[in-house]
Amino acid sequence: MSQFTAAAFEIGRSKRARQAFSFDDVSIVPTRRTRGDSDVNLGWRIDALQFDFPIIAAPMDSVMSPQTAIAMGKLGGLGVLNLEGLWTRYADPQSLFDELAELSDPIAATTRLQQLYAEPVKAELIGERLNQIREAGVPVAGALSPQQTQAFAAEVEKAAPDFFVIRGTTVSAEHVAAGSEPLNLKEFIYRLDVPVIVGGCATYQGALHLMRTGAAGVLVGFGGGASHTTRDVLGISVPMASAVADVAEARRDYLDESQGRYVHVIADGSVGRSGDIAKAIACGADAVMVGSPFAKAAEAPGQGFHWGAEAWHPELPRGARVKFDTVGTLDEVLHGPSRVADGTMNLVGALRRAMATTGYTEVKEFQRVEVVLH
After folding, report:
1. Distance between CA atoms of 238 and 217, rounded to whole angstroms?
2. CA-closest candidate to residue 78, choices 190, 185, 153, 164
3. pTM above 0.70, yes or no
4. What is the set of domains in the chain, with CATH numbers?
């Protein structure tokens, strides 16, 4: 067990806090060795599946439809479908996406989102959407919140996706709510015959608890920074560089504790540009979950708008829709060529170049690269 203790600072007489760092606070340091881009292997393996690069498309309605999940798979990555989204509430939601794209007023948009997402999730549509992705011959993954996991677990298990993602603002090893049966993740994952990725979490101890449930991967963060304002509404936020490094340490200690069981650390938040992807891995992540860059793709269901589950909460929405300009196709966002110099296109090529420039040929090795604070 790690004995590391970060220095604490006094806020006042009664409160102390440790300093934490975001991706903007750190930079990657080149070494004396460089590599050719063609020498770099970005392959990422989790459970029984191998992917061409360690980038996952986030389960957000503005980013992932069955069609874009299929496209993501064919391009070498993993797309996760939101199983509580419009695609499982309506048989054909395309007209609703078109309607939302016409709403420019933020208050009207939030109100309409709340109305649309008040429609109950249809259990039969969960299996239908996941089977649609499977029939295309690509990896299948779907996501539910902890609050809805129990209710629709049977449908997910019946559809037999390659991965099931339990994703929330913050997820504990046991979700407890008055008036409903608590979700005991350890028991649930043991019964479910599907690899589970779960999160978010932001601390060493929280991650260790999630790893002990039997999860194949742990999400670090609160699901993105561009599409919600959890910090403004709830006062909750996490500087991602410190969070990823803390959870990576939990992964190492759990590897010893479990005598060799490796749990993947997936950065899920504040990953808006290609440089953030490289920094996340440099801080210890095995992969990253990306939302906003894919919202800028021509195929994105949000048609230039981006929102997360927080945006349509019926009582406490805490994330306005964000308007983006379309930069190119999904293929161009992932593989280029890039026509902009801001790190929003050719995400895969940028990661490859960062590794080559610092002399690393494998993603796992790149976790050891030196970083500095600004």
Report:
1. 19
2. 164
3. yes
4. 21-373 (3.20.20.70)
